Amino acid sequence: MKRVKLGTFVIGGLLVALFLGLVVSGFASGSPDGLERVARDKGFLETARDHLFADGPLADYAVAGVGNERLSTGLSGVIGVLVTFALGYGLLRLARGRTRRDDPDRTPDRTPDRTRDRTS
Protein backbone atom coordinates (compact mmCIF):
# COMPACT_ATOMS: atom_id res chain seq x y z
CA MET A 1 0.00 0.00 0.00
CA LYS A 2 1.41 3.36 -1.04
CA ARG A 3 1.66 6.06 1.64
CA VAL A 4 0.32 9.53 0.92
CA LYS A 5 2.25 12.55 2.14
CA LEU A 6 0.49 14.76 4.69
CA GLY A 7 0.64 17.81 2.43
CA THR A 8 -0.98 15.90 -0.43
CA PHE A 9 -3.72 14.69 1.91
CA VAL A 10 -4.40 18.20 3.25
CA ILE A 11 -4.49 19.76 -0.24
CA GLY A 12 -6.82 16.98 -1.40
CA GLY A 13 -9.12 17.57 1.56
CA LEU A 14 -9.08 21.31 0.91
CA LEU A 15 -10.02 20.77 -2.74
CA VAL A 16 -12.90 18.48 -1.76
CA ALA A 17 -14.14 21.03 0.78
CA LEU A 18 -13.90 23.83 -1.80
CA PHE A 19 -15.87 21.74 -4.29
CA LEU A 20 -18.54 21.00 -1.69
CA GLY A 21 -18.65 24.65 -0.64
CA LEU A 22 -19.03 25.85 -4.22
CA VAL A 23 -21.34 23.23 -5.71
CA VAL A 24 -23.25 21.44 -2.97
CA SER A 25 -24.05 24.53 -0.88
CA GLY A 26 -26.11 25.84 -3.80
CA PHE A 27 -28.58 23.04 -3.13
CA ALA A 28 -29.08 23.93 0.54
CA SER A 29 -32.64 24.34 1.69
CA GLY A 30 -34.07 27.84 1.80
CA SER A 31 -36.47 26.79 4.56
CA PRO A 32 -36.03 28.35 7.99
CA ASP A 33 -33.58 26.61 10.31
CA GLY A 34 -34.71 24.90 13.53
CA LEU A 35 -34.65 27.94 15.79
CA GLU A 36 -36.41 30.17 13.29
CA ARG A 37 -39.03 27.48 12.65
CA VAL A 38 -39.78 27.08 16.38
CA ALA A 39 -40.03 30.86 16.78
CA ARG A 40 -42.48 30.99 13.88
CA ASP A 41 -44.51 28.03 15.15
CA LYS A 42 -44.68 29.41 18.70
CA GLY A 43 -45.59 32.91 17.51
CA PHE A 44 -42.65 35.00 18.69
CA LEU A 45 -40.74 35.37 15.42
CA GLU A 46 -41.90 39.00 15.15
CA THR A 47 -39.92 39.89 18.29
CA ALA A 48 -36.62 38.82 16.72
CA ARG A 49 -34.02 41.49 15.96
CA ASP A 50 -31.25 41.45 13.38
CA HIS A 51 -27.78 40.67 14.63
CA LEU A 52 -24.75 42.92 14.26
CA PHE A 53 -23.67 41.39 10.93
CA ALA A 54 -27.11 41.18 9.30
CA ASP A 55 -26.02 43.72 6.65
CA GLY A 56 -22.55 42.22 6.22
CA PRO A 57 -21.06 41.02 2.93
CA LEU A 58 -21.80 37.35 3.75
CA ALA A 59 -25.18 37.74 5.49
CA ASP A 60 -27.70 34.92 5.00
CA TYR A 61 -25.08 32.58 3.51
CA ALA A 62 -24.75 34.67 0.36
CA VAL A 63 -22.25 37.11 -1.11
CA ALA A 64 -23.66 40.62 -1.37
CA GLY A 65 -23.82 41.99 -4.89
CA VAL A 66 -23.98 38.63 -6.72
CA GLY A 67 -27.29 38.37 -8.59
CA ASN A 68 -27.37 34.59 -9.10
CA GLU A 69 -28.58 33.07 -5.83
CA ARG A 70 -26.94 29.67 -6.33
CA LEU A 71 -23.59 31.23 -7.31
CA SER A 72 -23.81 33.67 -4.39
CA THR A 73 -24.36 30.82 -1.94
CA GLY A 74 -21.53 28.80 -3.52
CA LEU A 75 -19.09 31.69 -3.28
CA SER A 76 -20.08 32.16 0.34
CA GLY A 77 -19.28 28.48 0.92
CA VAL A 78 -15.87 28.84 -0.73
CA ILE A 79 -15.07 31.92 1.36
CA GLY A 80 -16.12 30.04 4.50
CA VAL A 81 -13.89 27.07 3.64
CA LEU A 82 -10.89 29.33 2.92
CA VAL A 83 -11.32 31.36 6.12
CA THR A 84 -11.72 28.21 8.21
CA PHE A 85 -8.67 26.60 6.59
CA ALA A 86 -6.57 29.74 7.07
CA LEU A 87 -7.52 30.01 10.75
CA GLY A 88 -6.83 26.31 11.35
CA TYR A 89 -3.51 26.48 9.51
CA GLY A 90 -2.49 29.59 11.43
CA LEU A 91 -3.37 28.03 14.78
CA LEU A 92 -1.46 24.88 13.86
CA ARG A 93 1.62 26.93 12.91
CA LEU A 94 1.41 28.85 16.19
CA ALA A 95 1.06 25.65 18.21
CA ARG A 96 3.93 23.91 16.43
CA GLY A 97 6.20 26.94 16.75
CA ARG A 98 5.48 27.29 20.44
CA THR A 99 6.25 23.62 21.11
CA ARG A 100 9.61 23.86 19.41
CA ARG A 101 10.63 27.09 21.17
CA ASP A 102 9.42 26.15 24.65
CA ASP A 103 11.00 22.69 24.87
CA PRO A 104 14.80 22.84 24.66
CA ASP A 105 15.03 19.04 25.08
CA ARG A 106 13.29 18.38 21.76
CA THR A 107 15.41 16.67 19.15
CA PRO A 108 14.80 17.09 15.40
CA ASP A 109 12.65 13.96 15.29
CA ARG A 110 10.29 15.63 17.79
CA THR A 111 10.86 13.14 20.58
CA PRO A 112 12.04 14.42 23.96
CA ASP A 113 15.59 13.59 24.94
CA ARG A 114 15.03 11.94 28.33
CA THR A 115 18.73 11.18 28.94
CA ARG A 116 19.43 14.74 30.12
CA ASP A 117 16.71 14.60 32.79
CA ARG A 118 18.07 11.49 34.50
CA THR A 119 20.63 11.66 37.25
CA SER A 120 22.64 8.57 38.24
Using only C-alpha atoms, the radius of gyration works out to 23 Å
Give the overall form. elongated
Termini gap: 45 Å
Helicity level, as a percent range? 40-55%
How many helices?
3
Poorly predicted parts: none
Strand content: under 5%
Number of DSSP E strands:
0
Derived structural class: mainly alpha
Give the topology.
Blueprint: H1 6-22, H2 34-42, H3 69-102
Helix pairs in contact: 1-3
Describe the structure.
With 120 residues, the chain is mostly helical. It has a domain of 32 residues. Helices cover 50% and strands 0% of the residues. The chain contains 3 helices and no strands.
Question: How is this structure best summarized?
Answer:
By secondary structure, the chain is mainly α. It has three helices and no strands. The radius of gyration is 23 Å and the shape is elongated.
List keywords for this structure.
3 helices; 120 residues; mainly alpha; elongated
